[in-house]
Write a structure and sequence with these properties.
This protein has 263 residues and is mostly helical. It has one domain: Triger factor/SurA peptide-binding fold, CATH 1.10.4030. The chain is 68% helix and 5% strand. The chain has a 3-stranded antiparallel β-sheet. The radius of gyration is 19 Å and the shape is globular.
Amino acid sequence: MTSSVFSLMTSRTRTVIGALSVAAVLTLSACGGSDASDDAKDSSSSSSPSASASDGAAEGPQPDLDAIPDVVAEVNGEQVTKEEFVPIYKAAFQQAAAQAQMTGEEPDEKALRKQTADNLVDTELLLQEAESRGLEVSDEAVDEELADLAKQNGMGSADELLEAVEAQGLSAEQAREQVETQAMVEQLVADEDGPLEPTDKELRKIYAQAKKQQAASGGGQEIPPFDQVRDQLVEQAEAQQVGKVATELVTDLRKDADITINL
């Protein structure tokens, strides 16, 4: 489960203008909370440099980081650096590599680099717009979100979550920055479109879509009853709304933006 924790932490920023997978959100609760906690401890205890190196080799193909410039992009005079780019790109590459194992096709690194750069440019545009509106995210709000993410992944505390993502290559500071980014974008969406308050009708529609997807995929894992996953459904509905409104904002912001991508 630590890999899914890492993916969750990184994808929440990487896909601020796109909704999370319905099926993934619904089946998260069925993964087993205690297993997530145990895996986190195991991963944390084996995070020495030698262990990390051997684990990386065992995981399969690794992304080519030498091809990434120190300044990946510039957005209205603000830089998107390699340091910001790499953890997001590595998460995207790991996901693509996992999919490649099923399809037999190698990840398209050029396309992944472009997609990651575009996503980070869009995120920077949203953050600049949020700053121009005077929006802020407090440390307390970041702490609450980390605690919530830890709970979603069956962990006892935010510290345990941060240990898990650090074992996967994302520093605690980077994790906090990504959570702050997501919270800022959510504030911007609320400022633009009003509070995120999905109705039961919307939640049941998402639930029905997830069940339909599960049946079509032939997966053996049964989706839990609606009442058991209502909180996850709320998260999913909010993510979809954030994605919809943020995409519309980015489309407008890009029209007058000065953007240079150096890949």
